[in-house]
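Minutes, project huddle
Topic: does the predicted pose make sense with zinc ion bound?
PN asked that the exact inputs be recorded in the minutes so nobody has to dig through chat later. Recorded below.
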Amino acid sequence: MKFKDYQYKRPDMAAFKTQFTALLQAFKQAPDAEAQNQLIAEINALRNDVETMFKLVQIRYSIDTTDAFYETENDFVDEQQPVYEDMVVDYYRALVASPHRAALAEKWGKQLFDFAACKLKTSSPEVLPLVQRENKLASEYRKLMSSAAIEFNGGTYNLQQMGPFMQVADRAQRRAATNSYMSFFEENEAQLDRIYDDMVKLRHAIALKLGFNNFIELGYARMGRTDYDAAMVEGYRQQVLKAVVPLATELKARQRQRIGVAELKHYDEPFDFVDGNATPKGSLSQLVDCAQEMYRELSPETAEFFDFMVAGELLDLAVKKGKSGGGYCEFINNYKAPFIFANFNGTLDDVGTLTHEAGHAFQVFSSRNYALPEYVWPTLEACEIHSMSMEFITWPWMERFFKQDIAKFKFSHLANAVTFIPYGVTVDEFQHFVYQNPTASPAERKAAWREIERKYLPHRDYDGNDLLERGGYWYRQSHIFYMPFYYIDYTLAQVCALQFWHKSLGEQRETAWQDYLRLCQAGGSRAFLGLVELANLENPFVDGTIAKVMQPVSAWLDNAKQDF
Ligand code: ZN
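Predicted holo structure (tokens), as shared on screen:
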């Protein structure tokens, strides 16, 4: 069956609510665990029906935002999703309170209950109107960001479209493009400050109403984190400061020499090589064929997975008019099918996106048969291990994509993995400051950002740009607005992915693959640290782990010194 044949019918939410409430009532009154297990299956079947329809709408709408039918359906989903999620929370409440919890936990494992308890802490009917206002502010940010119409070199561009101009070889052009890009934020500084200030105060109020001291704990609970806390993350950032920042700074110094500038200014940073970045060789369909061949050779499991994706037409990769930006991977419950969405533009990111999203899709395909929807995906820091590790595990095949550019590709992939980590912890530490100090003014927040940036990105030189010098870089980082405390996840996953990178280079390659496979098959059946252990990875929170992980990375990059 192909994706286009997956049938959409608008779910009857009133009927769903009646059925769901009846099942929930029966669950609460069920005499034993066996009866409750039967009802869990029925409840999940109902949930899968609704979620399947929601996802079909969201995917099809993102593929063509000018499709009037799916636009209407997308509005319907936006409106119904919070109502649906509230009903699921009612189910979690009943689950956690079950008198047969011990017997249920024996069958399903502890994670279902930890996860449900965590979600319960994040919602109550009392805060629903506040959460709706929070969502409205997020939409306001989205709208403002997509309204950008930047005049540059005779054309008008949105923020994404400015990207290529900021990487060109001509330094004056690069600088001009970056200044034009920043002018959007300068013009909208007051509005961005107002949106974020409202968000922070609202989130703080929600946290207090839910019984937290501030938003930090609530933010962690929203992310479903059950096995680490803010203190552990702080220790982790300390490790990054000691073990990653010096190497990242050295890589930036090498970049400065490589591109031949006396001082590496902020507008020079996206420009990596004088003769241009590595680019994939071949058309989109050739890249997909190449990926299919690669996944057939990699393992029987990846062969089955990618053949399923291609046969089901579950990849939408080409840039098209009316298509949403970005890339993602979704899972369509009732078809047990992953879906990969991307916007290929002929740059090295195309291959990166393909292997990254294929990592997510392979994981969800590997855990598609879990009876519990909660176990299909893990929490986000674990999800990014699957995707970022897949980018490294596929290195032996990358020559087929990049041909003569292979050495350049590998170097920039690994170097960017390193330099990303200090930026990621900057975003994280900033958010801890913000929610620890909810009454700080927008100017104080910006000053805090700049101070944190100086610590983790000491090489950064804003060349006198007023807004950036005052700490305005983070306006562009949408996670800070949409999903507070989501970002450290990418760095935690990167530390794990670098372990897979190292093991995959040498004699441990086969063992590493088995570890990766086990991790993907475990889905969300364990919390983050449980998954880390299951995959034979070193725990990033343990002091010394980061230094140990960085050793072979640093050695490899040193080895590449004569070339880059
Ligand atoms: Zn990802």
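Observations noted during the meeting:
- Residues 33-63 form the longest helix (31 residues).
- The mean pLDDT is 96.
No decisions taken; revisit at the next huddle.
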